[in-house]
Amino acid sequence: MAEDKLLAEMQVLRDRVTGITGTAVASRDGLIIREDTGGTDPDNLAALAATALALAQRLATEAGQGILREAAVRSSGGYVAIYAVGTTAVLVVLGDEGLDIARLHRESRSTVDSIEKLLP
Amino acid sequence: MNIAISEDDLVGPLREALVVAAVAGMTGALRVTGDPGGTIHLSDGRVVGIETPGAPGPEVLLLRSRRVSESSWEAAFAAAVATGGPMGAELVTRKLIGSGELEVLLWTAVADAMFVLASGTVDEYRAEPGSVDFVLPLDPGAEADWLLAETSRRLQVLTSLPARHDRDRIVAVSGAERSDVGQDHGEILTLADGRRTPRDLAFALGRGVYATLLQLARMHEAGLLVTASYRAGLVPGGWRPGRVAPGGKPVSADGLPRRTKDPADMSRRAVPWSRSRDLSAPLGLLRPRSRRDGRPGEAP
């Protein structure tokens, strides 16, 4: 089933990158598609992430900096990283303070590409 | 199963890098790439701090354990930035932590991070001399000899522990009564949801990875916890201490350590570390080498 493959891709990313505590995939209009967050409210997360991605893309455009690759929120207790998946979806990655950011940058690209192929 | 592991086998490449940096009296950063890899900060050849995704640093240890509140930390940090003074002194001045307690915490963090670096894989390291960029440095720093000996000791203990700190996802056994166990155990039982590895638990609690592993071993033996699943790593074949691609020699012209993985060695990654040269001289007796004597880092 496509949904299980989607979850499998999300779990591969969490396996590969130290410090990821959870992930979620949402639609661009803020509805959760699949979540593996381990406790964070997925509906709120989806709505906020979709909005944040849209804003981040507008910022990138405004700054004349090309195509957005990642929008990241860094806090005292961890990270939220957001990626566009094609034009219809959003990948959200939650990480703790020790998130391996360099590895996340390397691995997220293939995850985003794989997820894009799995979505209708 | 108890394998007799010599100190040299366990910490080979890190030992190499640290010894050369110590002898050179290096100040700056030693970048270690691998899994988890990280950065070792040195001042005059002594280790003052280590950053790695694999272990909580001093800030996490203070904040997550709630020893210092986040707002207090932010205020102290802002003041330290404004005055240009060290963060440690600011924390102590504001009576957020005693200087003795802070020093112990910083030692704990350095030893813990070195243990995590050594028990992972090391692909390459390179030295970046310069100023120290670390928010809570140990002053004076830890000597390489001591750090390596302590790390070897912990790695030896690790071989007999049930869970691997970076791979095993731990879950509380259903029916484990939280009221029956101490508060320490209770916290772990709540957090052990089958998603977190010992490293993740250490971060969530604001405690060292090694100390967490020891506690988890006790709880495992008491039947309170089991391994629920495993993180699939990047390298197949399972964990082994000090596993690293052999080969490659320090080639830095300025005498500072540099070790680069040879692509041809990739197929040999499953082989346990074996010393490519004789480093039988005790650490303390390695003498600084001038460039005329030969390649940096080689024993006489």
Verbal overview:
Chain A contains three helices and five strands, in the order H-E-E-H-E-E-E-H. With 120 residues, chain A is an alpha+beta fold. Chain A is globular and about 35 Å long. The model of chain A has no long low-confidence stretch (mean pLDDT 95). In chain A, helix 1 (2-16) runs antiparallel to helix 3 (101-118). With 300 residues, chain B is an alpha+beta fold. The longest helix of chain B has 21 residues, at 99-119. Chain B contains nine helices and seven strands; from the N terminus they run H-E-E-E-H-H-H-H-E-H-E-H-H-H-E-E. Chain A binds chain B through residues 12, 15-16, 18-19, 21-22, 38, 76-77, 96-100, 103, and chain B through 35-36, 52-57, 59-60, 63-64, 70, 73-74, 166, 193, 195, 199-200, 203-204, 231-234.
Entry summary:
The complex is a heterodimer of chains A (120) and B (300). Chain A is of the alpha+beta class and 120 residues long.
Describe how the helices and strands are arranged.
The complex is a heterodimer of chains A (120) and B (300).
Chain A: H1 2-16, E1 20-27, E2 32-36, H2 42-62, E3 71-75, E4 78-85, E5 89-95, H3 101-118
Antiparallel strand pairs in A: 1-2, 1-5, 3-4, 4-5
Chain B: H1 7-23, E1 28-35, E2 38-43, E3 46-51, H2 58-64, H3 70-83, H4 87-93, H5 99-119, E4 121-129, H6 144-158, E5 168-172, H7 183-191, H8 198-205, H9 209-221, E6 225-230, E7 258-259
Antiparallel strand pairs in B: 1-2, 1-4, 2-3, 4-7, 5-6
Helix pairs in contact in B: 1-6, 5-6, 8-9
Strand order of the largest sheet of chain B: 3-2-1-4-7
Shape call of chain A: globular
Instruction: Let me know the largest β-sheet of chain A.
Output: 5 strands, antiparallel
Number of strands of chain A: 5
The CATH topology of chain A: Beta-Lactamase
Distance between the termini of chain B: 37 Å
The percent range for strand residues of chain B is 5-15%
Can you list the strand order of the major beta sheet of chain A? 2-1-5-4-3
Give the oligomeric state: heterodimer
| Topology pattern of chain A, helix = H, strand = E | HEEHEEEH
Count of separate DSSP helical elements of chain B: 9
Nearest-integer average pLDDT of chain B: 78
Give the low-confidence spans of chain B: 1-5, 235-255, 261-300
Structural class of chain A: alpha+beta
Q: What value does the average pLDDT of chain A take?
A: 95
What would CATH call the homologous superfamily of chain A? Dynein light chain 2a, cytoplasmic
β-strand percent of chain A reads 25-35%
Radius of gyration of chain A: 13 Å
**What Rg of chain B, in angstroms, do the CA atoms define?**
20 Å
Discrete helix count of chain A: 3
* H-E string of chain B: HEEEHHHHEHEHHHEE
